[in-house]
Amino acid sequence: MSRKQMHLATILSNGLGLPYAWLEPQVDPADYANIHALVRYAKAAERGKLDFIFLGDFLAQSQRSEAHAPGQTLEPTVVATAIALATDRIGIVNTVSTTFEKPYNIARVLKTLDVVSGGRMGWNAITTSAPHAAANFGRAIDDRETRYAQADEVIQIVQALWGSWQEDAWIADKNARRFTDLSKIAPVNLRGTYASSRGPLEIPPSKQGQPVMAHAGASPHSHALAGRYADILISEVFTIDEARHQRESLRRAATAAGRNPDDIKFFAGVIPTIAATPAEALARRGRLVEPDIIQQVHYLGRLIGLPLGPDDLDTPLSAAQLSAARANPGDPRSFRALEVAREGWTVREVLHHAVIDFHPAPIGPPEVVADHMQEWFEAGAADGFWVTPDIYADGMDAFVDGVVPLLQQRGQFRTEYEGETLRDNLGIDHQYGLRQPHSKP
Amino acid sequence: MSRKQMHLATILSNGLGLPYAWLEPQVDPADYANIHALVRYAKAAERGKLDFIFLGDFLAQSQRSEAHAPGQTLEPTVVATAIALATDRIGIVNTVSTTFEKPYNIARVLKTLDVVSGGRMGWNAITTSAPHAAANFGRAIDDRETRYAQADEVIQIVQALWGSWQEDAWIADKNARRFTDLSKIAPVNLRGTYASSRGPLEIPPSKQGQPVMAHAGASPHSHALAGRYADILISEVFTIDEARHQRESLRRAATAAGRNPDDIKFFAGVIPTIAATPAEALARRGRLVEPDIIQQVHYLGRLIGLPLGPDDLDTPLSAAQLSAARANPGDPRSFRALEVAREGWTVREVLHHAVIDFHPAPIGPPEVVADHMQEWFEAGAADGFWVTPDIYADGMDAFVDGVVPLLQQRGQFRTEYEGETLRDNLGIDHQYGLRQPHSKP
């Protein structure tokens, strides 16, 4: 058996980067609505042999400040199509809400994309809890129990619709005048409490059969759902211990659902900042933190249990402060914050390390990022990484051309795609239609 | 004022053609699920300077016989994206049902496509009455009154969402650290009986502001809706008289809605068959009719009031039969059927003229098709034509390279696009957001 290697994914959001990335001189703010910029980043990721591009989604206004760009402009189906047509091997995982989208539409769009991409699609099936998103659909938000029960039904119906055109239904025999075997294109007639569909869907199998399944989340509800259906789980974890704990919880959920836990790949997020020297990298990330520095210093105080304010920014924490500081176990970022503070940086510099961000932030030359990933991977904290460039304009290339070759040299990451489909590259078994329960005890 | 010219559109369905087109030797049945084939036809249409590509939609199983290909495989958003990225000037009009799709999704997908295409999108807003489509969404079909009341609300909400990011909201001023003027990105908060949405949509204006509006239908409900909102109406008409009558009904509806009737373009359908000689063209179309010849001969009998059956196929109608025949005023195709029968063709040959089809069928060398269109256009029967190639594999090129140059030589059709956007090329006024009622008395 060949040595196990990590998987790598990246997310394209608004094509700009972290909230203040658009202010940087190398960024053209017009990329906000420029699909060609997103395609360029996708092609870079494919050059780096990444497993997949992830497209998030948010069904409501995402811009909260005039100084931020909105999180996303362009509708993900359109973006996925553009990427599918401009690339050959990289996968594309689209987020579609089970709360507000209908299974018939989800099934049709994603299977179309799977056919068009040559078997490279995945579906990140998530529930939506944002009241503003519900309001866009003229609804209120249901409780979590209901949302996850609905998600379960929607996923089953979507997968059944994917299988409703059987794999050998397409004959295309001119002599026999039979385009299809209609007995193999049958309604699914699924009626649930929250969703129903008749089917069938008139779409033949893709090169990988049907899209792979992803889920993003960390709650017990999330892990239970992912344990039943997901091939990929995207997590938000800040320490190796927390990641291992979540990965084990997920694997137990898969086992409980009668599946082989190795069939679910656990992805840990990372938002690297890469530059030639540690100082340049810290300055680059610092510029992206600086506009929020006042809010962040107060937040940092709460994280480590000290009353911090703007006056504390330009000095390191004193010995007395460091001795009084306590990491807040409710926010795993506090451990990293305290670790950086103990290195003697000023409070401003601690914050420039992006200790308060959505994912861990290795900052420095490519080796620093590769080391972070290798350490986590070898510690069993993740099967792969979900990488968000800090500033897409040059951050995607910096990762692909700087970090990926190091991981390849270390034997941690592929040097060529294993196959043509997303299933091939992730090592995920064939599935067509709804998986039979407990088929893999 | 320059001489008025016709507009031209074409539809891409399954990329094959009429139901039996896939049996022809020049057709690769695999084109059924091949987006590159659709893109090739779109590029041909752009070479012909056509106004737009029309993408239909049907939210249920469309294949009724193993000998037919289904009407459509690939989801239209995906197809529209592929065409938008492969072309520069031609418009793209996508069908999206107001009955089963939510206004927030419709608005988001179509405005994204409008931005990505550089202002070349249109929305064919139609209601859906197929019970199998309703069943795919776990619903039953509402009555027509309800469906059209819902359509009216959905269109208003979609257009309001399109306008919810005001045209000058995007500032992108790095020095002022203002990405947008958030006061100009406001919720619409529309609540109707059948649809509601809060908004806003975080998508800036496209090069034409927002998509143009199309509608397909002939009922009084359809004309009333189109009169209020449509820039384009796609009709199904078989004679010049019927077309004039429908066009006038539409224009009255526009006037009643306080609009200038010249602002709605009335498109008449046509399914030409083009070959070097009349006999070759008739043989080509005949092959597409022949598998249904038995059903068609019975149907022809009902159309012209004669008891016809298979035994009548290979002789012309006798003088006695022709004298007894009566066109059925309930089906305008009967007039054309009788006209062809009187030319002395055998009954089989009458049917090979495609007298029983979805649209008029000029059959012959390119001149025959150009003559049909010119005659209708000059008679005030249409502002444009909606052309369905009989067999896409070579029928699209035959139209673009054979018929279009004749229309251009005759001064009936443009030789170059007027502008960059669909609005420019159709001569449709700027609109952003919901049109103010009675703004053009």
From TrEMBL, chains A, B:
<feature type="binding site">
    <location>
        <position position="57"/>
    </location>
    <ligand>
        <name>FMN</name>
    </ligand>
</feature>
<feature type="domain" description="Luciferase-like">
    <location>
        <begin position="28"/>
        <end position="381"/>
    </location>
</feature>
<keyword id="KW-0285">Flavoprotein</keyword>
<feature type="binding site">
    <location>
        <position position="148"/>
    </location>
    <ligand>
        <name>FMN</name>
    </ligand>
</feature>
<protein>
    <submittedName>
        <fullName>FMN-dependent oxidoreductase (Nitrilotriacetate monooxygenase family)</fullName>
    </submittedName>
</protein>
<feature type="binding site">
    <location>
        <position position="95"/>
    </location>
    <ligand>
        <name>FMN</name>
    </ligand>
</feature>
<dbReference type="GO" id="GO:0004497">
    <property type="term" value="F:monooxygenase activity"/>
</dbReference>
<dbReference type="GO" id="GO:0016705">
    <property type="term" value="F:oxidoreductase activity, acting on paired donors, with incorporation or reduction of molecular oxygen"/>
</dbReference>
<feature type="binding site">
    <location>
        <position position="219"/>
    </location>
    <ligand>
        <name>FMN</name>
    </ligand>
</feature>
<dbReference type="InterPro" id="IPR051260">
    <property type="entry name" value="Diverse_substr_monoxygenases"/>
</dbReference>
<dbReference type="InterPro" id="IPR011251">
    <property type="entry name" value="Luciferase-like_dom"/>
</dbReference>
<keyword id="KW-0288">FMN</keyword>
<dbReference type="InterPro" id="IPR036661">
    <property type="entry name" value="Luciferase-like_sf"/>
</dbReference>
<comment type="similarity">
    <text>Belongs to the NtaA/SnaA/DszA monooxygenase family.</text>
</comment>
<keyword id="KW-0560">Oxidoreductase</keyword>
<dbReference type="InterPro" id="IPR016215">
    <property type="entry name" value="NTA_MOA"/>
</dbReference>
<dbReference type="Pfam" id="PF00296">
    <property type="entry name" value="Bac_luciferase"/>
</dbReference>
<keyword id="KW-0503">Monooxygenase</keyword>
